[in-house]
Amino acid sequence: MPVSLPPELQKPGGAVLTNAEVLRIRNDFPILHQQVNDHPLVYLDSGATSQSPSSVLEAEQEYYEQRNAAVHRGAHTLAVEATDAFEDARATVAGFIGAAENEIIWTGNATGGLNLLAYAFSNASTGPVPGTAGRFALGPGDEVLVTEMEHHANLIPWQELCRRTGATLRYIPISDDGTLRLEEAERLITGRTKVLSFTHASNVLGVINPVEVLVALARAAGALVVLDACQSVPHLPVNVKDLDVDFAVFSGHKMLGPTGIGVVYGRQELLNTLPPFLTGGSMITRVTMEQAEYLPAPQRFEAGTQPISQAVALAAAVRYLGETGMERISAWEAELGQRLVRGLSGLDGVRVLGPGTGQERIGLAAFDVAGVHAHDVGQYLDSQGIAVRVGHHCAQPLHRRLGLVSSTRASTYLYNTTDEVDQLVEAVGNVRGYFGATDGVR
User: Fold this and answer.
1) Mean pLDDT along residues 275-292
2) Which of 40, 61, 399, 410 places its Cα 20 to 30 Å from the Cα of 204?
3) Residue 357, Cβ neighbours under 10 Å: how many?
4) Residues contacting residue 399 through CB under 8 Å, at least 6 positions apart
5) From 79, 394, 404, 437, the catalytic residue
6) How confident is the model at residue 231 (pLDDT cuts 50, 70, 90)?
7) Is residue 37 domain-resident?
């Protein structure tokens, strides 16, 4: 059964966040109280890496100071305490997304999680496999389906899987407004589709994809569903059982946690038949000089020394998010996202990517400033103390589809205020004049 967070960590609603409460929240984040280039820091790059509250920093430090030891390997007191903390963290993260403890696998990051799945599928495709693992095997005639808006981490592993197995990679195209062309999804998802892997929320467009529709199409075709939840689990209430996906991945560093830890969710019955990817210590039951037998999930996918302190810190981050309330966070970021789009769209020569004003999106906006390279935009904003992301955001095919090489992205989180969004909009409004870009307004 799924492990649930305590009731106090499952606030379904509550009072809507306000700027006053956000200012209180900001007091929990030491890094936000500094000046950058003689300006108060305005951190609008949480889509890349979020900042951590003191409780998360303290949780990791306390682990190292009080119970640092190898987990699952010792009978001494510190080893037992480290193992308890490690597995308690697994239970906490599992409850946060509505999963069971044994459905959560620790990885180094979400990219590692997606590669774990792709290589495990590959292992099922290269020779005889026990039991029902053959359902993961791919070969010529089979297809893997992604979307045109995928982050490279949810594209290249599947490209490589298809290259190794002879399967074919296809993708669902997007419309000019950045939404998926669902009529094409209906056409492309067929009996040949073995895997459908797609992002829940785009890291460039901000669009929230219709998971229920895509899962229903995949179920009808007998395809497995992999959800890239890197931009949804930190920002939206996510229950993997309600979404009915087979696998999901997300990263700790995008949800107030540390770097160096990612999470793979998988249905228990699937994980226990999926061939392991990494092999070695801690994931075996019996080893001879000729062969090995593997533990059930999740340990069968956790060879070697695990990110123990990072898991403990991620659990602290999950508790912080739960105490604030994910519905409240989601609603606040939706408001900030609309404020971003409305403000940026009103500027001459600025093109906002993805859904327009009034259309659902997470709290980020990527944009193009006519006549000014994204890196120059980012440097100007940095001179004003405003931190944003520039480049192709690991989504080159998507930018190519939009007729761009790069863009500038502002991404919010629970610690950003409406005033910070307004500061960004005002600064972007000065960019073209600063660089003398008077031509090419679209």
Assistant:
1) 90
2) 40
3) 15
4) 204, 392, 393, 405, 406, 407
5) 394
6) very high
7) yes
Amino acid at 252: G
Question: Does residue 7 carry a pLDDT above 50?
Answer: no
Residue 267's CATH number = 3.40.640.10
Task: Write out the residue range of the structural domain in which residue 254 sits.
Answer: 60-322
> What is residue 178's predicted lDDT score, i.e. its pLDDT?
95
What is the pTM assigned to this prediction?
A: 0.94
Q: Burial-class residue 145 by CB neighbours within 10 Å (0-12, 13-18, 19+).
A: buried
What is the residue type of 298?
A: P
Q: Where are the beta strands (DSSP E) in 288-337?
A: 292-294
Amino acid at 33: H
In a domain, 436, yes or no: no
Q: Are residues 78 and 139 in the same domain?
A: yes
Please indicate, yes or no, if residue 142 is contained in any of the structural domains. yes
Establish whether 394 is a catalytic residue: yes
Total of domains in the chain: 2
Gap between the Cα atoms of 101 and 88, Å rounded: 9
